[in-house]
Amino acid sequence: MTSRLSALCFDANDPLLLGRFWAGVLGWEMTEDARDGIVLLPSDDTGFRIRFGSTQEPKTGPNRIHFDLTSTSLEAQQETVARALALGGRHHDVGQLPEEDHVVLADPEGNEFCVIEAGNNFLADCGFIGALSSDGSQDVGYFWSKALGWPLVWDQDQETAIRSPHGGPKVTWGGPPFRAKTGKNRLHFDLAVDGEEEAEIDRLLSLGATRIDFAHGEVGAVAMADPDGNEFCVLTQA
């Protein structure tokens, strides 16, 4: 038994504003659900939804996970950047060098993302969302590979990456040095379980997860953390 990655969830001060921004950038349909709130539905092989939950907490510090968006040409990269800026995004300085060809932006609430240049070999066979690029250890890459049943597609110099056998984005972890974790992550995974929930929770615990309590936990979900302390939710049927 394995869990399925059901959604990538944003804590948002204004879920509707953020949902509209990302719907416009990605070209995904936006819906509003009584239980799940503002949700974006993928229009490609991404394989998971994007959900925006409400929080009053301000964003502090860089996120531990961000999108790497791909480009098929310089013109396509420029069009993505222009579209994001027109929707309310902004350029963002994370210490990138002038000679680097990717463009770092932030959404209206400051969540960082990158628009990658054309010809990036690592993301060559990926869709528009090329990767969920994460700050994390080699061990956490191994954990998520086993948790989701996704094979490792990169494991070198303490950097890891996994990808669903069905395609979609890669999920990558950059290895040391790590940023200090301060408070709850702004983004987290929702996992859905096909089968007995308690058995799956026990399996995740055996892989190195822990049960936790965190603010803004989902209704009808079990809150957990991976070996690096990143929060995630296992959705129940209740």
Automatic annotation (TrEMBL):
Residues 125-237 form the VOC domain. InterPro entries: Glyas_Bleomycin-R_OHBP_Dase (IPR029068), Glyoxalase_6 (IPR041581), VOC_core (IPR037523). Gene3D superfamilies: 2,3-Dihydroxybiphenyl 1,2-Dioxygenase, domain 1. Pfam families: Glyoxalase_6 (PF18029). This is VOC family protein.
